Amino acid sequence: MKSWVDKAWRITALPLILLILVPIVMLFTRTSLQGLLANLSQEEVRQAISVSFRTTLISVGLIVLLGTPLAYLLGRHEFRYKKVLDTLIDLPLVLPPSVAGMALLMTLGRRGLIGGWLDNSDIQVAFTVAAVVIAQIFIASPFYVRAASLGFAGIDTEIVQAAQLDGASRWQIFRFVIVPLSRFALLSGIMMCWARALGEFGATMIFAGNFPGRTQTMPTAIYLGFERNLESALTLSVILVVISFVSLLLIKVLVSHETG
Prior knowledge:
This protein has one domain: MetI-like (MetI-like fold, Orthogonal Bundle). About 80% of the residues lie in helices and about 0% in strands. It has helices at about 1-30, 35-40, 45-75, 80-95, 95-110, 115-120, 130-155, 155-165, 170-180, 185-200, 200-205, 220-230, 230-260. The mean pLDDT is about 90.
C-alpha cells in the first residue's frame, strides 16, 4: 500500500518536473559547444557579459554594505512597526519588475522627484550604468536582507551575553561573534542576490534602457537578440541557466552546512 502511494505521488509530481526540465534541456540542445564558443567571440555578447558582471559586483557590494545593518536591525531587535518595515523590504520580491522600473524612473528620471534636481546640476542617472546598478539593488536586495536577518536572528542570545560579560564591545561582538556564526546565511544571501541581480530584466529595461556596451546586460541582450540574432540570445540564455543552477546548488550546500 505504501509503495503504491509513493508511486502515485511521483507520477503526480512528474508533469511539473517535466515542465521545468524540458524547456531548459531544449536550450542546450539548440546550442552546440562549438556554436557557444563562436558566439562568445561576438562583440555584443562579450559586452553584455562584461556589463552584467561589472554592475552586479558593484550592486552586490552595495547591497551587503547597506543591507547588513538593516538585516541586523530586523534580526536582532524588536521595535514598533517592525512588521511594516519587514513587509516594505520584501515588496520588491512580489512587485512586477516593470513597476519597479517605472517607480525608479519617476524618482530618478529627468522629471522625477530627485532626478529633476540632479538634472539641474547636469547629473543624469536614468539610462546610465548607475541606473543598471540601482535597478539591481532595488530588485535583489531583499534576497540578501532576508537571508542575513534570519542568520542573525538564529544566533543564541546566551553566546552574545557571554561575549558581553567578557568585556567585548558591540562592534567586537558583531565582528567576531555574530558574523562568523551567521557566515553561511550571509554567503547564501550574497549568492541569491547576485543571481537575482544577474537575471534582472524589467526594471533595467525601463529605467536604464538597452544600450549595447553601456546598459545592455545579458537579459536585455537576450530580448534584443531574439529579434536580431537568435544564436547570441541562445548563448546568453545557456550561460544564465548554468550560472543560476550553480548558484542555487551552492546556496543549498551552504544552507545544509548551516543546519548541519
